Amino acid sequence: MEELGTSVPYYVTVLLWLARTAFFAFVCAILLWIGVLVLDALTPHIRERQKIGENSIATGLYISGFIICIGLVVHGASTLPTLVGASPWLAVFNPNRLILMAAGFFLSLLVGIVILNVLIWVSRRISFKTLGQEPIASGVYVFGYLVFFGLIMNAALTTPL
Asked: Which of 161, 148, 153 shows the shortest CA–CA distance to 74?
């Protein structure tokens, strides 16, 4: 089994597809956790996760955002283009895709931070610190953040090289 192609049995292709999907879902879960830590660092006045746990609706929003994010990641990993004729190793663990994904993640994170700060600066009459006072507000805020990350990772996964 040197290369993927017509000579590879169908079950091998399916197993490689499953391995690739699981691998990239795991990598994206790590990036998601890094993103949540960055969110905590950027908004020290908002105790998102602490506040979210105080209300069942906020908790539901948090879990919903996480499920949507993982759904976007699994979609991206499942539809990830595969190089025809690539070795099975490259079909699953494509280093170019990992580099693109990491670069896209960190660039989008940076752009998101800049745009959020511009929004806060332009909307000076709105006190964003009040997000940390209400659990549901924190839940909605983090929900949007998780969907944002899911979209970033989906785009990085499905972008053709």
From this structure: 153
Please report whether residue 150 resides in a domain.
yes
Assigned domain for 33 exists? yes
Q: Write down the pLDDT at residue 1.
A: 46
In a domain? residue 5: no
Number of domains in the chain: 1
Full 3-state SS string of the chain: CCCCCCCCCHHHHHHHHHHHHHHHHHHHHHHHHHHHHHHHHHCCCCCHHHHHCCCHHHHHHHHHHHHHHHHHHHHHHHCCCCCCCCCHHHHHCCHHHHHHHHHHHHHHHHHHHHHHHHHHHHCCCCCHHHHHCCHHHHHHHHHHHHHHHHHHHHHHHHCCC
| pLDDT for residue 105 | 81
End-to-end Cα spacing for the chain: 25
Domain span at 72? 10-158
pLDDT of 8-28, one tens digit each? 778 887 888 888 888 888 888
Residue 120 is assigned to a structural domain of this protein: yes
Which of 80, 42, 43 shows the shortest CA–CA distance to 159? 80
